[in-house]
Amino acid sequence: MSGSERDPQVQELARPLRDRGDLDPLLERIGSARIVLLGEASHGTHEYYAWRTALTRRLVTEAGFSFVAVEGDWPDCHRVNCSVTLATGPEDPGEVLQGYARWPTWMWANEEVADLTRWLREHNAGRPPAERVGFHGLDVYSLWESLQAVLDHLREHDPEHVATALAAFRCFEPYAEDPQAYARATRLVPTSCEDEVVALLGDLRARTATDGRWERDAAFDAEQNAQAAAGAEAYYRAMVRGGPTSWNVRDVHMADTLDRLLEHHGPGSRAVVWEHNTHVGDARYTDMAEVGMVNVGQLARERHGADDVVIVGFGSHHGSVIAADEWGAPTERMPLPPARPGSVEALLHDSLTENSALFVAPPDLPGWLAEERAHRAVGVVYHPGAERWGNYVPTVLGRRYDAFCWFDESRALTPLHGVHASGGEQETWPDAV
What we know:
The protein has helices at residues 8-13, 24-30, 46-63, 74-84, 93-98, 111-125, 143-157, 163-172, 179-188, 194-210, 216-239, 245-265, 277-280, 296-304, 344-351, 367-370, 397-400; strands at residues 35-38, 67-70, 134-137, 271-274, 309-323, 332-336, 356-360, 372-376, 392-396, 403-410. The protein is an alpha/beta fold and 433 residues long. It folds into two domains: 8-137 and 270-410, EreA/ChaN-like  fold (3-Layer(aba) Sandwich); 143-243, no CATH class. The strands form two sheets. Strands 1, 2, 3, 4, 5, 6, 7 and 10 form an eight-stranded mixed beta sheet that branches. It has a two-stranded antiparallel sheet with strand order 8-9. The radius of gyration is 21 Å and the shape is globular. Mean pLDDT is 87; it is low at 420-433.
């Protein structure tokens, strides 16, 4: 499809999105839902982070949401959690974010997230410890960091029970803290460290369930690090085999972590989740389902029911974005070219005159929300000149999301580390699609 395309039904459904008060229709749609999943079409766009912050603040102050969970590693985010809940660490959570070292650092080490975490600490300062809003990581990459955290915790709190943790550590030692080397080795030789990590998790669960000496939060942190290590081991082992398995291992782990957090925070707890659209937008309404992929949005709806889960997608037509041209390459501020003709983004650009809009899907979807269109998905690795070959996911927008925040022109976020080179693990979605 080429040329301009206008749809009056787009104009009829569009609501203004200029200030926090314009989020009222979305707050009404969320109602009593326990889980709100907030997406993003890239990991490097200011407007997505800023408006997720605005909505999160309202959900915390007006609806009593209990914690924020993000597409980040558990150990790094736990240090932020300790700061925002005034447990330990520096008074400025931004100092903790500065310590994020895993590429792509800009995903969480940016000025926009620093603003959110500073606000969370300020909000929590006036509340009793049991009512303070947490900040947690859902992701699966932190194999060595989580193993080290478990070992450190056992040495401090339960030194007579470090043997199982040491066995897991020794199993991984030959791979020099390189998870991809471990993954390649398990492909060549049919052995792995799975048994050692599972034993560590089982041993830790047994002790935390019976040992009253451990404080509840510290015990949960130790167990979650063991869960992260087990998930990471399975993820890296599956990664080298190709196909959807590693993606599913990762998203099931994130959905399981979200469920454990809800249980840990207690009855009536409520969660705000920040992840890429490809994780939170229900996979059943994209081409992901055709290749056997699931995601957090689908799993949350299946486990908790559609009435208790609200999914909000984000997107834009053109502007700038933070990304890199290959994995581990220097961070760049890149152009975001005008969206592909026929896409969701092109339709909204052609149909609207305002730079931003909020859409809340009605029960009876108009045609443009019920039909399949290409929907942009920018990864941390991005090639603006190659959009005709990738970066779009076939999507039924009104089924994939319950609401959608639109920005005609968007701009790059501000990394705390500036624009620089780094290194880290490999991720294959959505860039490789």
